[in-house]
């Protein structure tokens, strides 16, 4: 029974059974049991009442620890000592957060209760203390009766008085030389001799401000400036400013309305003339302040400087360009129109020998033309919009690559030399598929017998829309651009081994165009805002070209390989010299609307651009073998013939491989030859 009672008491007081309670805990238990503790009895015997001298207005001086930090008492049961040297014990705080919350809800004085750090007890603030705290928080004085704005009383009056404020005799030190000042002066003299202290320089007597309206004689401040121009004088008032102007200076009603409609800068007079019977009847001028202010602005804000005029002949400023007739041959007039497509013709390509022309249209067909006669030799329906078309540049192959939807179709048009046509079919039929086909980003499919009758030989399926197809100069590789996001936008196909590969691991924006370098193993990739040059053998980025245009639309490489031109949708044609810089060598802005296509001639120093304004601009672009001589760019001819359809003009441009002729396809459904 006693053990249970002891365990209960241990649980109530928060001590472990078997552990001796501390001194304050023991006193607390004795008081709970109704037995007075020895300390309480000593206090009563001496007549000491703990809170007898307590007052809420006086500072609590029971804790006499002095300047000892209270943090030192954190691990002890007491918080200090009173005046008699007895310990001041901390009050028991066994309440958890829930008890504190209930106390906050139930106790109406919870908001004005604070903890005394010196004793650890809770103290309730009186109304006067709460008012004092609020006054201090709002930035007021602590004393209510203090008036910060009471009139100041000067101790010294401004009147001359008979008696002095103090009549103390002067000190002896006031007329004996000071040794401290002597030491200071000697230090200053030494510092001046050593150059550590610089004496004050005499001020420049010339004025920093001067009179703008002063006479500009040669001896004045302004006259010393060699290039000074005096401030312009105001024009003297004329008859129109008179209070009684002649009748011819007064405006009629129509002239007054016309004057009000004009812009302020276009008016001959900046006021309306009025007539008054006498000078006394003239009111105050409404624009007086504004005119004075504008005059001051003219005087001190307008830079006036005398500049020597250079006598230059305007003809000397125009660059010396050769005459266009000295740069012939180049196409000058329209020779043939190839009609047959029922919708806009997006792309065209010329055979390597220049005898045949292939065109692709939105009407879902590819047409093959004879260049010399404009006769349609063959029409191949492909069942979709033809985005791009490219004739194989190898002279012993008769193949046309057509980009339709998500596939690239390889057509044998069966035109020209029969040996070349038969050799092409024989080359395609000799392929032996490997025993273990590798995983490829595109699938190669043989054409069915019905498709072979129409000329189709192979179908390369990609699963995503194809926007461009272009051949390498040797005719075995072709690059394809897909309208998709990610690193598989560009694929390279090998015809002889029927292999496909994705050359890039990451994407650098939406790819618009690609082109093979004609001489070296480079691949040019044009995104929306830049052109990147990749080395295919080393598999590394060689150069970045910055066209400084909003959206690149087309790309062409010079036959020598050292120059590149880009067309953009913001009507710019940018010429890059790869040996010179990654910035444009020249920017041509001859077109009014977006450029759709650019092309170089394979033999002649010509390049052309087609635009949505319906024009083809042919330029002479001579590239010299001397590296010290910059390319010569001269626009020589503007060719027109296509009619605008749906705000679209020329969609593709291609040069004849041997003749100075240019082909163009337009939104009006025609292909035109300019010779």
List strands and helices in order, with pairings.
Elements (H helix, E strand, L loop, with lengths): L1 H12 L9 H10 L5 H8 L32 E4 L5 E3 L7 H10 L6 E3 L6 E3 L2 H11 L41 H16 L58 H9 L26 H14 L12 H4 L16 E6 L5 E6 L5 E6 L3 E6 L4 E7 L4 E6 L8 E5 L2 E5 L6 H12 L13 E4 L2 H5 L2 E6 L4 E6 L5 E6 L7 E5 L4 E3 L9 E6 L5 E6 L3 E5 L4 E6 L6 E6 L5 E6 L4 E5 L8 E3 L6 E6 L5 E6 L3 E8 L9 E9 L9 E6 L6 E5 L3 E5 L1
Number of strands: 33
Give unreliable regions as ranges: 1-48, 54-59
Q: Looking at the structure, what is the overall shape?
A: extended
Largest sheet: 5 strands, antiparallel
The total count of helices amounts to 11
Query: Strands of the largest sheet, in order across it?
Result: 10-11-12-14-13
Q: How far apart, in Å, are the first and last alpha carbons?
A: 125 Å
Helix vs. strand class: alpha+beta
- Radius of gyration based on Cα positions: 51 Å
| Overall mean confidence score, pLDDT | 81
């Amino acid at each position: 029974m006693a053990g249970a009672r002891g365990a209960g008491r241990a649980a109530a007081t928060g001590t472990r059974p078997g552990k001796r309670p501390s001194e304050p805990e023991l006193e607390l238990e004795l008081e709970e049991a109704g037995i007075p503790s020895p300390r309480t009895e000593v206090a009563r015997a001496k007549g000491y009442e703990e809170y007898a001298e307590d007052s809420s207005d006086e500072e609590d001086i029971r804790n006499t620890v002095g300047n000892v930090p209270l943090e030192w008492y954190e691990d002890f049961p007491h918080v200090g000592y009173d005046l008699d040297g007895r310990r001041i014990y901390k009050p028991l705080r066994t309440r958890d957060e829930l008890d504190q919350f209930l106390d906050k809800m139930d106790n109406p004085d919870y908001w004005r209760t604070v903890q005394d750090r010196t004793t650890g007890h809770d103290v309730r603030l009186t109304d006067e203390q709460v008012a004092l705290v609020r006054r201090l928080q709002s930035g007021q004085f602590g004393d209510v009766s203090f008036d910060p704005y009471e009139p100041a009383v000067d101790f010294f009056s401004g009147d001359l008085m008979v008696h002095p404020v103090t009549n103390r005799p002067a000190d002896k030190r006031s007329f004996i030389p000071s040794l401290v000042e002597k030491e200071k002066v000697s230090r200053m003299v030494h510092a001046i001799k050593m150059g550590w202290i610089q004496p004050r320089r005499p001020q420049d007597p010339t004025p920093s401000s001067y009179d703008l309206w002063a006479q500009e004689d040669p001896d004045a401040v302004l006259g010393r400036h060699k290039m000074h121009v005096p401030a312009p004088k105001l024009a003297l008032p004329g008859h129109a400013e008179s209070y009684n102007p002649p009748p011819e200076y007064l405006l009629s009603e129509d002239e007054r309305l016309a004057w009000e409609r004009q812009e302020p800068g276009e008016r001959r007079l900046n006021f309306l003339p009025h007539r008054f019977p006498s000078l006394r009847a003239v009111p105050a001028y409404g624009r007086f302040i504004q005119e004075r202010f504008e005059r001051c602005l003219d005087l001190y804000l307008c830079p006036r400087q005398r500049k020597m005029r250079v006598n230059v002949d305007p003809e000397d400023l125009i660059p010396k360009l050769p005459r266009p007739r000295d740069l012939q041959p180049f196409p000058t007039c329209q020779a043939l129109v190839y009609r047959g497509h029922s919708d806009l013709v997006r792309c065209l390509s010329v055979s390597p020998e220049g005898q045949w022309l292939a065109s692709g249209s939105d009407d879902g067909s590819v047409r093959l033309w004879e260049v010399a006669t404009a006769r349609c030799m063959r029409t191949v329906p492909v069942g979709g919009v033809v985005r791009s078309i490219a004739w194989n540049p190898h002279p012993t192959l008769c193949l046309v690559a057509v980009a339709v939807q998500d596939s690239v179709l390889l057509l044998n048009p069966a035109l020209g030399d029969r040996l070349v046509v038969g050799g092409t079919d024989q080359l395609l039929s000799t392929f032996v598929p490997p025993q273990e086909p590798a995983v490829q980003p595109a699938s190669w499919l043989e054409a069915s017998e019905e498709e072979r009758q129409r000329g189709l030989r192979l179908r390369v399926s990609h699963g995503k829309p194809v926007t461009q197809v272009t051949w390498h100069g040797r005719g075995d590789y072709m690059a394809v651009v897909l309208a998709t996001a990610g690193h598989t936008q560009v694929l390279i196909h090998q015809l002889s081994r029927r292999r496909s590969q994705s050359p890039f691991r990451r994407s650098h924006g939406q790819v618009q165009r690609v082109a093979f370098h004609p001489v070296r193993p480079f691949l040019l990739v044009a995104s929306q805002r830049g052109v990147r040059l990749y080395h295919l053998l080393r598999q590394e980025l060689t150069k970045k070209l910055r066209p400084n245009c909003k959206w690149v639309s087309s790309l062409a490489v010079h036959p020598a390989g050292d120059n590149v031109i880009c067309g953009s949708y913001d009507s710019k044609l940018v010429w890059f010299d790869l040996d010179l810089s990654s910035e444009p060598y020249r920017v041509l802005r001859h077109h009014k609307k977006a450029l759709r296509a650019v092309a170089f001639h394979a033999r002649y120093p010509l390049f052309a651009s087609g635009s949505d304004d319906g024009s083809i601009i042919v330029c002479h672009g001579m590239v010299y073998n001397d590296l010290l001589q910059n390319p010569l760019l001269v626009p020589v001819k503007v060719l027109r013939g296509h009619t605008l359809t749906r705000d679209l003009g020329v969609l593709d441009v291609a040069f004849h491989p041997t003749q100075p002729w240019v082909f163009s396809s337009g939104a009006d459904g025609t292909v035109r030859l300019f010779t």
